[in-house]
Each structure stands twice: as C-alpha cells, then as structure tokens.
Design a protein that fits this description.
The protein has about 110 residues and is mainly alpha-helical. The chain has two helices and no strands.
Length: about 110
Amino acid sequence: REEELNHREEELKQNNDLLSNEIQSLKEALVKKEDELKQKEERQTTEQKDEEQTEDKEKNKQRIQTKKQSHEEDMEDEVRRTLLILSQRKESCSKRKSLINDTDSS
C-alpha cells in the first residue's frame, strides 16, 4: 500500500511538473506574442509619423486610427484567447488532480 502511494505521489509530481512546464511555455508564448504586437504597434507609429507628413494629412490620420483600433482589438482578442486557453488548462489540471486525489483517498 505504501509503495502504491509512493508511486501515485511520483505520478502526481510528474503531472505537476508537466503542467508547470506547459504553463511556463504558454506564458513565454504570451510574452513573445505581446512583444510581436508591440513591435507591430511601433512600426505602425513610425508609419503614422511618415504619413502625417504627406499632403493628405487628415485622410491618412483617419486610416491610421482605424488600423490602430483594429490592432488594439486584435491584441485584446489574442490576450483573451490565451487567457481562455490557460484557464481551460488550469481547470483541466484541477479536475485531473481532484480525480487522482479521489482515487488516492479510496
């Protein structure tokens, strides 16, 4: 019985390590995505400055505002999707842990 419990504890530790690694990978992916979006925003800012120097200044400003709003919405959507994935994985992990604990207690 003790050997079985030790084995289950080791399985739990391994699962926890795997889940921690997966969460870390997702966090790193999120940071990378945020960096990419920031670079894109910086490029758009540079484009905005260039476009403001043209004769058709008002028209360009309106187009840039639309791009910026679309970019912000894309960024928010990406963050929401990533958070949803993290939340779902966390919930799944909790359920698995609960099932393992229920199995251990019986």
